[in-house]
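DM from R.C. (forwarded with permission)

"hey, sorry to bug you on a friday — could you get me a structure for this? deadline for the figure draft is monday and I only need the backbone to look sensible"
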Amino acid sequence: MLTPQVTPPSSLSSHTPAGQPEFVALDLSYVCILCHQVLRDAVQTPCGHRLCQQCGEDYLREGTPRPCPYREEHCEALSPAEVQRDSSARREIRQLPVYCSNKARGCQVKVKWKDLEKHLAECYHEPLLCPNRDRGCDAVVSRGDLSEHQLTCDYMPTQCEFCGEVLPKLSKERHDNEVCQKIPIRCPYGCGIDPIPRDQMSRHQQTCPRQIVVCKFASMGCRFKGLAEEVALHEKQSMKEHVHQTTQQMANIDLYDLDIQKEMQELNDLGQEIRHKVKDIEKELEEIQHLVKEAKSEGRSRKLDVVELTERIIHVEKQVEELRPEVQQRIGSDLNILREKVRTERERLDKLVAAQVMGEGATADPTTTRTDPFEDLQKQTRQLGLQEAKLGELDLRFQILETINYNGVLLWKISNYYRRKQDAVAGTALSLYSSPFFTSRYGYKMCCRAYLNGDGMGKNTHFSIFFVVMQGEYDALLPWPFKQKVSFMILDQSGSRRHLTDSFRPDPNSSSFKRPLAEMNIASGCPLFVSQTILETSNSYVKDDSLFVKVTVDTSGLEPI
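My reply, with the result:
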């Protein structure tokens, strides 16, 4: 704890001191059951138990009565109004003996918790920042060693005696040797004048008699240099040598010029070659553009064909819709005719039977057998019914296949939310099941179960959601128990992306996550997922009478089959 300056708190304060010190001895009666830390601003329940003030407020945030977290036999249900401040416990906790926070640095002092900050303001072992930290010193030293450190600190401020600038002690040598413009320095040519300020030295060097100069023919290759008198004498005595150097340099320039001309010719030839290649490329580009135009034209023609086919399909669908009433009417008419024929045939049969009985049926052939048209009609009706049932079953299977997901994510739209909620309140339909989804094509099979009016601890107050492991075709190839993390999310439909989320990791010892022996295991999840008040009072989550639930199963670590 770095505290250059500490203001001790008032001894009359009833609040718990700051920090988490090491207690000499801490009785369990001063430990909060919710956060498992020492009681901070203690409050008391009607049944005599103690909690931190903030822990109690968080526990009772919903505003409805909840069981006492101690859950003993005599405990009572708690409401915010019944939890009272425990001044006695607060005083006792402030008096608890604690070790100095600098115990590990050598301080063995024990003080009351309320006096700890006052002690730290004077503690010899308290770590402090160096006062020169603004100048670059990052040292941390104890209060007792601070004075000695300041005497030797490389960042102690020092003032230059020549220019008056204040700078860290560490930079003083570089300042004197390179930076300060007022410090006296000697002439680098050694002319013998007294030291002068650095900012005047450049002017002196321009007229210094000991200044070193070079020969005028240095550009021709002469390397002589010295004092002005020596250079003048050298130039007079070395005229022949200088002419030779100049001639040689001119010859070199001519050779260099020839080389440049040769390179220029090579560059011209290369440029000509490049121009030919550019023309060839341009020709190829024109051919490609022509092919692209042809492809676009062909693509446009195919699009027109698709449009034409689409229009024909729409036209056929219209004709089907227009003919459907006529077909239905014709079928009804044919059915009525068939029924009339059946009735007529039955009457004729009845007359023939009566004629045989009375001896008037001599013309009838007794070997002739007639099928019952009504029975044939019943058979056909039964066959049509079976076909309709099979079509319905196939349609249901297609709907399920269209919604199945194989990447461990379920997006579940709960429509008609308020009607289903009323069904749940009335007890006619307590829960809803989602369609199944999978972690992979041959992975775990799962679904979710939602209670719109809550279940268990959340009944009548919360939206409850549970995760269900289902029996799949490939369970024999999968590792058990199921161990993947499961996350629930109610999506915000307002665009603010304030989604409601919760997650859990499966308990490997729970039967809910072992290999299913029946169609599905016992559901496991969040009975207190979200309050119904939060869900329904905002227009963000239930919108257009629909709710979207997203369930994500973490598939990391699962090896593909």
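R.C.: lifesaver. The longest strand covers residues 462-470.
me: no worries. Residues 257 and 542 are 86 Å apart (CA to CA).
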